[in-house]
Every structure is written in structure tokens, then in C-alpha cells.
Design a protein that fits this description.
The protein is of the alpha/beta class and 365 residues long. The protein is built from 15 helices and 13 strands. The strands form 4 sheets. It has a 5-stranded parallel β-sheet with strand order 3-13-8-9-12, with helices on both faces. Strands 6-5-4-7 form a 4-stranded parallel β-sheet, sandwiched between helices. Bound molecules: pyridoxal-5'-phosphate (PLP).
Length: 365
């Protein structure tokens, strides 16, 4: 312990302007009081849940998408396909597809809703710089669903020479299983890393869910670890009650969309409803079928976070860690803040930081 004036031997003390002395005295007094105060200790302890970020935002091209596109382009080359097509929402999958097309010298067309072209302009420039052709989709809500519909139409027409690189763990078989396996590198690495660092498995896995690829990639390698709780965070948009959201698992019903049966947002006539989220990558009225299954068997829990909560999460992580998350990933961050009271002391939590937020600065700032 230092002496009364804060010296450790020769060192320490207070070498500051006189004006700060009052504040320092005040702080010293408060700290002396709090040190033995049960409430202070409890408040402090609650922050001691250890939260690890699985940093997919550090991947080449800025999100987890490249895990999948790299594997799919190799398949395309093996099948003799000369052209790649893809849908994109936030533009991250478009950029990752354009990147691997450039790497392997394939031609590349990316379908993107007009609305997303506006809100993710930076990624449109990146795709073009990588030599891809970005095709604007003006139908429907001009977002991800419409882009995927157009990409499927293109594929039907050009299937002989074209491979469709689906960007998430959805679509017809074998995509959900295949993309899940390609993204499982996230969970396999996380499992190894946490065992090395903490010598035990995590208590919670948390990830945002659009189509569900980053989440299933994190969850799947822990499927048999029954004590590891899995939480998928969907976009509640303006609130579930408003009808303007993307929570297919939280508020949807069984149905078929884009080639597979899963939980989807549909009206009373079975027509697909418009989704909404401030995060372009979550703005989709369906979800990968494996999540619908995990929900049904109770293996994972699915919650939702509003646009406003996500924007707050975006700022929170930026402020406390200096890490700017993608607005999609910010949903997972925001959930942790919201649910902090339910997370026990000394819990280990792994959050998938699916991507970085440079693309969103203009929308969120
Ligand atoms: C595409 C994307 C998502 C949503 O897709 P999932 O398949 O649900 O993972 C989430 N975060 C980021 C950063 C994305 O680019």
C-alpha cells in the first residue's frame, strides 16, 4: 500500500495544479468509502463477466463473408463455371464475392437493392473497384430479398456457366449445410481459443442473425456442448409490434422462401411481408433453416433488438473498446447490454463480431 500521500517509496504523490486537489481529495474519499461497500462490489462484479469478441471484423474484406465465398469459388472452378453471381444487402457479401472472383479471374455480377445501393455506397465502390458489375434491383422493397430473387432468376437463365454464391446459410439444399460448414471455422477457432485461454467452454455464445451464417458458424461446433447456451439476435427494427422488423424466428411462421422451408415473415395469404432493419445485412424476411430447427428443439434461443438499441450498441462498443462494429454485429452487442442482469458473475461470453462498421458510419453517426 502507498503512504497517506500516495507514495510508494520515492514514487507517486500528487504533482498537479492546485485546482485539481479538491477533485482528487473527493475521489480518494469516495474510493475509501466504496472499497468496503457491498453495493459497489456487486456493481463492479457484474462487469466481471468476461466477454470475448470473436473478431470476424478483422478478416480480409471486413466481415465473416469471405470464409464462405473463398470455399464457393473453389467449388465453382472445380465445376468449370466461368461466372459468379451473388445477392448482397450490406454489400459485404458482394465485396467478398467480387474479391474471390478477382482472385480466380471469373466474371462477377452482384445483385443489390436500390435502397441498399444508397445506404451502403462505400461497398458499391469497393465491388466496382474489384471488377464486379453491380446490378441495381428496383423491385419490391429494393433490399436483400429482392436482390436474392433477381439472382435466383439470373441463375435459372444462366445456370450452365454460372455459379450462384449464396451469402448466408439459407437457400435450397445444399447451401444451408455447405455455408454452415464453411462458416464453422468461426466456432472451431473460438472453441480452441477459449479452451486455451480460459481452460473451459463458454457459458454463452451470442451472434446476430440475418440469414444466420455467422451465428450458425459460431454455434455449430458447440452443438453437443449442452451447457453452452446459444443466443441468436434478430433485428426488431421499429419494434415487433410495429410490423416493421426482420424477426423471422421471433415473429414469423413456417413457409417457403428462396428455395427452402424455414421461418419466414408472411401475411395471412402466405405472401412474403416486407422486412425492415437499420442494418442492411439483417433486412431479410427469412432465415436459414437450421436456425428454425435449433429454435424448435430448444437448442438455441432467439431474441431481438430494435434499430435504436443497435445504434446505441454501435456507439457503446466504439466508445469502450475503440472497435467500430458493423450495425449487424451491433445487435449482438446491444443484446448483451440489455440482458446484463441475467448473465451471472464469472460467466464466459463469446460474441461474434461479424463485421466492421466503416460502411455504417454515414448511417449511424
Ligand atoms: C451479412 C452480414 C450479416 C448477416 O448475415 P448472416 O448470414 O446472418 O451472418 C451479419 N453481419 C455482417 C457484418 C454481415 O456482413
Amino acid at each position: 500500500m502507498p503512504d497517506k500521500t500516495g507514495h510508494f517509496g520515492d514514487f507517486g504523490g500528487r504533482f498537479v495544479p492546485e485546482t485539481l486537489i479538491y477533485a482528487l481529495d473527493e475521489l480518494a474519499k469516495e474510493y475509501a468509502r466504496a472499497k468496503h461497500d457491498k453495493k459497489f462490489i456487486r456493481d463492479l462484479n457484474y462487469y466481471l463477466a468476461k466477454i470475448y469478441l470473436k473478431r470476424e471484423d478483422l478478416l480480409h474484406t471486413g466481415a465473416h463473408k469471405i470464409n464462405n465465398t473463398l470455399a464457393q469459388v473453389i467449388l465453382a472452378v472445380r465445376m468449370g463455371k466461368k461466372r459468379l453471381i451473388a445477392e448482397t444487402g450490406a454489400g459485404q457479401h458482394g465485396v467478398a464475392t467480387a474479391t474471390v472472383a478477382a482472385l480466380f479471374g471469373l466474371s462477377c455480377d452482384i445483385y443489390m437493392g436500390q435502397e441498399d445501393i444508397h445506404r451502403q455506397a462505400l461497398n458499391v465502390m469497393r465491388m466496382k473497384l474489384l471488377g464486379a458489375n453491380v446490378i441495381s434491383v428496383g423491385t419490391g422493397t429494393q433490399t436483400l430479398k429482392d436482390a436474392m430473387t433477381q439472382a435466383l432468376r439470373d441463375w435459372v437463365t444462366n445456370v450452365r456457366n454460372t455459379h450462384y454464391v449464396i451469402g448466408t446459410a439459407a437457400g435450397p439444399h445444399p447451401y444451408p449445410e455447405m455455408v454452415r460448414n464453411f462458416q464453422s471455422v468461426i466456432g472451431k477457432e473460438a472453441r480452441k481459443q477459449i479452451l486455451k485461454k480460459e481452460k473451459r467452454l463458454p457459458d454463452y455464445l451470442v451472434a446476430c442473425v440475418g440469414g444466420g451464417s455467422n451465428a450458425i458458424g459460431l454455434f455449430y461446433p458447440f452443438f453437443n456442448d449442452k451447457n453452452v447456451k446459444m443466443i441468436g439476435v434478430e433485428a426488431a427494427g421499429l419494434g415487433l409490434a410495429s410490423g416493421k422488423h426482420s424477426a423471422s424466428l421471433g415473429a414469423g411462421a413456417s413457409g417457403v422462401l428462396h428455395g427452402s422451408k424455414s421461418k419466414i415473415l408472411e401475411d395471412q395469404f402466405g405472401q412474403i411481408k416486407n422486412a425492415h432493419s437499420v442494418a442492411a445485412g439483417l433486412d431479410y424476411p427469412g432465415v436459414g433453416p437450421e436456425h428454425a430447427y435449433y429454435q424448435q428443439i430448444g437448442r438455441a434461443k432467439y431474441v431481438s433488438i430494435t434499430d435504436q438499441e443497435a445504434l446505441d450498441g454501435f456507439k457503446l462498443l466504439s466508445l469502450i473498446e475503440g472497435i467500430i462494429p458493423a450495425l449487424e454485429s451491433a445487435h449482438a452487442i446491444a443484446y448483451l447490454k440489455k440482458a446484463r442482469k441475467t448473465i451471472k458473475k464469472n460467466s464466459l461470453v463469446i460474441v461474434c463480431l461479424s463485421g466492421r462498421g466503416d460502411k455504417d458510419l454515414h448511417e449511424s453517426y
